[in-house]
What does this fold into?
Amino acid sequence: MPDDTPSSPSRSPAAGPRSRLKGWVQNLALMVGTFTLCCLVLEAALRIAGYGNLEIYQADPQVLWKLKPDQDCYTKVDRKPVHVNSHGTRGPEFQTAKPPNTIRILSLGDSKTFGWGLTEAESYSGLTEKLLQQHLGNRKNVEVINAGVNAWSYAQMHTWFRVYGLNYQPDLVVLGDANLWTQFSDENSPEFVKAFMRRVWLKNLLRRFATYHYIVEYKLSQVYATTRARFIPVDPNRDTLFKEEQAKDPDAFFRKHIAGLCSLALSNRIRPVLLHMPTTRQLQTPDSNNVINAKLLVSRQLGVPLIDMTADLKPQGTNLFLPADEVHLNVPGNQLVAQRLFATLTNLLTP
It folds into this structure.
């Protein structure tokens, strides 16, 4: 007798593995989606809390990095507002060609000049402009262009002044302090420049995220500072990128560029002024201060004014520096620098 009962459908041997694979993919997608959502929420929360939105740098084949033009951001310390104009310098917009009846001063330096943890008005460049404008009144318009860039060396300042700064037709250039990298210049090989610009690109990518700022540069600040010191050594003798040069004379390189910048200024009828702002460590052990020795030598050889802030800062010491910072001056410290600059510049500007 034939069996008319419908037979149950047979299960495909591959159905089980496919089902498990589908379930695994769904779980993975859920985990990835949840993780991404958490990251986005964390990023948004940290931005609201004030992290992120740091200054962004632009890779440059001649100076390696410079401030990206047309950006509004905040200082990493104390969250002070920063405006970078279309020329890539901190501060208000200005015309490339110097306007009539204008005294224009270029202020070159590293983070001390840029205004680490300060507003533009609190930096010595902004304060000097205000003092000079008050002194001259309606007789002249004063522009002090803050061309300070964090971690720049004297070689980079020399190159920037030659390539970009001369185009602004300054009457004076003030050369402040620098990071003592010994060999960063436009003389580096194309291979080195190309590799380093990739680092600038990667760092800029990371700096756009508040999560990176909070976790790496804030919570892991000590680890970050140690790692960063490999690439940004304060002491030229610890420059790991150019070990061979350190066996010679690491100071000769930046002496060369201090003198080169001053000579270039003089040949273009621009008056250079040298400025030295010692660190707290240099205030305690002035004999180890090779920077002031280099500037003294250039000052004597070329007849360039030198403003050494050591005697002005020493009586108050750490009270004139940002908290737990041996390098960067606070507002009262910048005010002292501006007063000394004002006194020197007014003498130079007197007919």
Residues 15-48 form the longest helix (34 residues). Strands lie at 57-60, 64-67, 71-74, 81-84, 102-108, 141-146, 172-175, 271-276, 306-308. The longest strand covers residues 102-108.
